[in-house]
Amino acid sequence: MALPTPVTRPDVRTERWSTPPMGCLKLNVDGAYVAQTGDAGVGIILRNNEGAVRIAACRSLKFCSSALDAELQACLMGVRLALDHSNEDLLVETDSLELVRMALNKLKDGSSLGPAMEDLKLLLAEDRIISISKIPRTCNRVSHEQILG
Quick one: CA dihedral 97, 86, 60, 137, positive or negative? Predict the structure, then answer.
């Protein structure tokens, strides 16, 4: 008699948003773009170490060329708002790996998004910006829902 083959279940983890350390704020940003219509929008949410919302905002974009452009505009809007309305250190999170790679690249960006990307790089060079990082979309749900209204 053969023993039954053990059934293994994949490691299923629920990734969730986590609070920033004491003294820091966490900024989650998201952009959305519909290529067929050109519709685009951004959503941002800034929260403290207790998860309390300090700023939440969304807006539609009149001029947007791509999903990456929408993500970049969301990040610019969020970082500017956070720097203008707080004194704490800032952790920036996005679900766009391409945006994070471009923002961390020391070379000047020669693409059509170059001027806006260079603006973002200047903002990220502020002493209060600790990091920009890519997070799973599941951890960025609230900023995405800001876009949807």
Answer: positive
